[in-house]
Design goal:
single chain, alpha+beta, six-stranded mixed beta sheet, 9 helices, 26 strands
Amino acid sequence: ENGLIVYHDVAYNFMPKSTNSTGNYCKSIALDEDNNIWCATWDGVLVTNGITMKFFNTSSGLISKTCNSIAYDSATKQLYVGTDNGLSVVNKQLLLSRVVNVRLYIDCYFDSISIAENSSLNSNQNNLTFYFNTPFFQGVKDIVYQYSLDNSNWIQATNPIISLTNIKGGNHTIKARVKLNGELVNSGITSFSFTIKNKFYKTWWFWLLIALALQYLLYRIINHYNKKAREKKLIIQKQQIELTTLKQQAFSSLMNPHFIFNALNSIQHYINKQDRQMANKYLSDFAMLVRKSFDAAQKPFVPLEDEIETIRLYLQLEQMRFANKFEYSITLKEEVEEEDWMLPSMVLQPFLENAIIHGIAPLTEKGKLAITIAATNNTLFITITDNGIGIEKSHQLKIDTKHKSKGMYLIKERLQLLSRYSTNPIQLSIEPNNTTAENTGTCITLIVPQAVIDEFKKHDMGLLKK
């Protein structure tokens, strides 16, 4: 009635009831094939191997804690326990593994709201409370919980309520296990998985947006500076064009002093001959040419039909002034609509003047001057040919007379500046017309893409409004 005495070969081992789990009054004992001693007591069944002991009662499956007798059948490995409530038949292995096979359960809450496993939580739901639940057994005095978040080191806790705060975003798994009376249960480790969404500033799409925003900002800054640079370049080009245009306007407004002097002499000649009809016609054409030249000098571009009319007047006057020393022709191809095309103002007259004065005038025979205008692929082609003395001889005469042609120089400079507004520049070529003849003549080809004028208009240099 005071406990169990175990006899060894060399000594007695007294296990008083104070060392037994509940203070047992021993009524009956039985031996199994593993040399375990099973003892029936008034507080349950005690089993010992002589060194350690375990205790079982109603929480372990017995029908009553008051046990009066016990027997063991090694064939069936069954324990027969006589109690004050009848006979309990229990499998020994099931009884031995009863405590250590207890399962641990995990419940999760956020602000008293239950969270299901594998839930996806918002970034602000990162403070969670976990409850570890295990069935309660009489005789279990020592319960220790162990948990690990994301395979970190095991942390021990005697309180089944665990609070985790400021959990980082991502996928997480908390694992837990329990020790009962110092022994880990062998039912495995219980796990609970969940996901916390990253804060918006920690997500890949946020940084992608930041990168795109920075790229866009950088693009705007670069584009702003490029735009300023282009505007500055355009201003410089505008100033250059204006300066060149003004130079040409000033030069053209003076016209050729020899031409004006000779024109007035021609008018005087017709008056002196009392040829009023020719004098009036010459004076009328001269006045119209001066007026058209003055109007054209105020504009960067003029319609093709106006330019043709101006050069026709000029050629008629020069033809009269040189007493029909040359003949001329103006050929307009069928595909050219005069009202659809524009030319840089006063661009043809310097070429014609150069051809007449420096090419045809020195000839002993009659000169010929031909102007052909054609168009294709939004490009205007103007060809001026003469049978004059040619580029080389003319150049030699200029050297001998120390003459410098500013008109031609200004025209070329102006065409180069205008060409900067398009990927298709204005092209000018001056070549011999007939290399086999004594007087090679000159062929001038002017190619004016419509894109140059369109781009010039688009940038609104202000010159078109003058």
